[in-house]
């Protein structure tokens, strides 16, 4: 009996330690790339890289964002150096956390680097509307200018201090 129990426990431990092997090639025989860094290294060697991309990082980030949203957590990611403090205060009143975030505009091969942030933004838009962030940002800009009248604030070639006198 003890041997049977030892065998079962050993089998369970061994099978739990086995990792699921990711597929190396798709059904057409093309190499599958799961990681943006691997893609970048391969692309540097071959600019005509023909592979299948499966962005597991993005998939995991979306799932994490959806779980956070389901639990009531919302985060706005943005980069507004002057207005961020005021914008954060306003968003906090709506239960929205803020994190400063400067994103890149370059995508490599089909990898999406900001899936968590994008899911959060979609949920904010869904809950509060398309102009919600822009409206609050406009108010935050106005507040910043009124609080700092000696700091030049040029937007679209216009000094906004003149607009908010």
SSE topology:
Elements: H1 2-17, E1 32-33, H2 36-45, E2 52-53, H3 56-70, E3 74-78, H4 84-92, E4 96-100, H5 115-128, H6 132-147, E5 154-155, E6 158-159, H7 160-163
Parallel strand pairs: 1-2, 3-4
Antiparallel strand pairs: 5-6
Helix pairs in contact: 3-5, 4-6
List keywords for this structure.
single chain, about 160 residues, mainly alpha, 2 domains, 7 helices, 6 strands, about 50% helix
Describe this structure in words.
By secondary structure, this protein is mostly helical. It folds into two domains: 19-54, no CATH class; 65-165, no CATH class. It is built from seven helices and six strands. The strands form three sheets. The chain has a two-stranded parallel sheet. A two-stranded parallel ribbon has the order 3-4. A hairpin with a 2-residue loop joins strand 5 (154-155) and strand 6. Helix 3 runs parallel beside helix 5. The radius of gyration is 24 Å and the shape is elongated. The model is unreliable at 2-19 (pLDDT under 50).
